[in-house]
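Section 5.1 Outputs to date
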Amino acid sequence: MQAPPEALCAALASRYEVERELGQGGMATVYLARDLKHRRQVAIKIVRPDVAAALGSERFLREIDVAASLTHPHILPLYDSGEAGGFLYYVMPYVEGESLRAKLDREQQLPLEDALRIAREVADALSHAHGRGIVHRDIKPANILLESDHAVVADFGIARGVSAATGETLTATGMTLGTPAYMSPEQAAGSKTLDGRSDLYSLGCVLYEMLAGQPPFTGPTAESLVHQHLSVTPRPITEIRPSVPGWVASALQRALAKAPADRFSAALFTAALTRPDTGSPPATAAPVDGPSSVPQPSVASGARMRSPWAVAATTLLAVAALGGAFYVARPLWRPAETPAASAAHQRSAIAVLPFQNLSAESTNAYFAGGLHDELLTQLSKVAALKVISRTSVMGYQTTTKPLRQIADELGVGSIVEGSVQVVGGRLRVNVQLIEAVTDQHLWAERYDRTLDDAFAIQSEVAQKIVASVGAALSGEEQGRLAAAPTANAEAYRLYLQGQGFQRLPGTLAPNLKAAQLAYERALMLDPAFALAHAALSEVHGRMYWFRYDATEARAASQRAEAEEALRLAPELPEPHVAMGLAYYWGARDYSRALGQLSIALRGRPGDAGVLSSVGYVQRRLGRWNDVLEAYRKVALLDPRNADHLWDLGGETLTLMHRYPDGVEAYDRALSLAPDLHVAAVRRGSAYVLWQGRLDPLRDVLNRIPAGVDLGSSGTIAAQRAWLLLLDRDAAGLLQMPELRRPTVFEGQVHYLPTALYAGWAHQLRGEHAAARVAFDAARVDLDSAVKRLAGDWRVHAARGFALAGLGRLDQAVGEAGWLQQSKVYREDAHFGTMAAESRAQILAQAGSADEALDEVERLLVKPSWLSVHTLRLDPRWDPIRDHPRFQALLKKYAS
């Protein structure tokens, strides 16, 4: 490769150090460079001088800037663009890897699963872009980059910029838009009204090549290729590669339809490329992202459209458009790692760092945290702002990092810093707003007022920040920021205290009880304080949901406080959040919960907490694409929140059988919070489901201290017992201290007397009398528990296991029937899959093989916690293990 021209190095010297040439394409030369401001390697594409002259720089740069708005794990971001010293350039990440073009040149044909995964990932990226009205126009293997074997689409928006800047083909420069082997018929015909379906045709050509080893059409000239795209039906993929399944061939045929109206949307193509036996929508279903992700112009029939296209084909010259490949090491599923530079120039993307507490008395320390939290809440009500959530900024409480580095890590352009001091009856607050890129102070203010002015200060600060970053503020938003929640200053201070306790990490009962007391005292002073009612409702809900007090009285209190908040202030978002959580946690009425949370989201559009609740409710409803979209948005607003990464991300992706993506989300969470033991355990469990490997889970259980609380997953001992059961280690089970005394392994999704594990261990050893004694001990405990927790599916599941172990098969089947009629089984797409799996195991042990296998088959084809590997490992399936259907399922889903 040639050294970069001296003139280029000099033109970019203030921002980039150009190191060497990486490659050349039809439109640009690519150079490796170092971004001096952000201290990172980048790839700079320098548009050929003749092409730049034909394009005109101003409109080209304005149009390709739309690519900077695309944030997606499978889209390579645009960092920068401009003109310097006569050079027209744009900047993207530098990626150390290869393009799909290089991989195909080396391997010719790809394994089926690899080809489908790459196509699904590209389709997912296209769906995201099409939903924002952006069409790529040049999907081809050279523009698909592979990072750890996952796809990232490059050069988004570049073809749009060329088209907008010229309006005509660049015949004078020897360049046209698109690449002949992958052009859609309408693009080949020179249509000026391309939409997302054109990209899908191109992706169909790419998938065809990955499977066949060649594109659907080949020929010696561009004119030959154009003619074939317009009028020739491609050879069926199964004639070239007979091993391609029929459902893949059908999907490919539809993607390559001549008429755009006969093709998929991007979202539907993603679904169609998922194995039918994994529960994806059929190819004829409505698109996942609605009737149309982009405007769909009316299209005539294929026969009527071909004639003018064929005429246009005789004059169209087509050559490869953008060339050169460049790569960046970026994980597949990290919506949290957004391109910082794309937001760095946007003042309206804000991080409010934790306020420094300067108060001498510890009793006043809550003011700093309370004012900080309330300021975040106020700013999240402004739609024009992107405000990083509390969890992500709290990690910078004691940091010495430069502001620019913090801004890069959080993907923001503005930083708010402040300090709070209480001296006697005075409240002194210093706040400053800084533009991170320039280190320019946009606004600063000092307040020295009475304690009664706490709300007025944070309201004024919020309004000044909005004005200083130039964000638009609607009249309704202005009213929300200015409206005082209570006229009683002491009640407001107690509310801030309660918020401080409630937001302490871990959702621990003592902190919730302290918050409850503070809210109740606030309401004694001002019974009409709607925000305190809403906050108190959430505390009651957490006490109930996390089973610190799983009584109906607690659930009723949650509902009552939410209703009172809504009665007092129906115009505020917080009462709707409280009501949504009351429907979610207390009533498990997920549709109504979603309705209330959606109302709240209109009032707090930038609130990651509300968005995450929406995602969790969508998960209960089984709306999987909506869950992932909520996860993407939450990760933008709260990029360093490990809880969202492992739960809303990792758990959802694992539940959907997207195990590599799930493990990646767990890894990201653990990189932020290495001591987040529940994420480490869930990661180990994912490997059991994904590959049938027990060692990752065994290693983490051996490493974590024995007394660690794993939240909804229970205890380390409970996880170890499950591992030993899968490993068929009866001796290890019986040696566990927990199995030598009557106790219960209890978590949010299981209630298992240890005697059950003793019974299963004795069964493994053929010790039937001892097993019966253990199962009967478990039954006695469960007979008592079912009276106390009559509607608890966990208890009925465990009782079914005990009865099956005792040979009381009719009663065991009765418990399986109870599970099938339960609300969790019928209406909860998350926990309901666990109830269904328990039901199937009970039926298997009770001799109802066909009914058990019906349930198993349903669980394997939809999101669930059952996999072919746990079927193979778990001895509770032994009674039906030799059944032909069971063996057929193991073979069918083996991978």
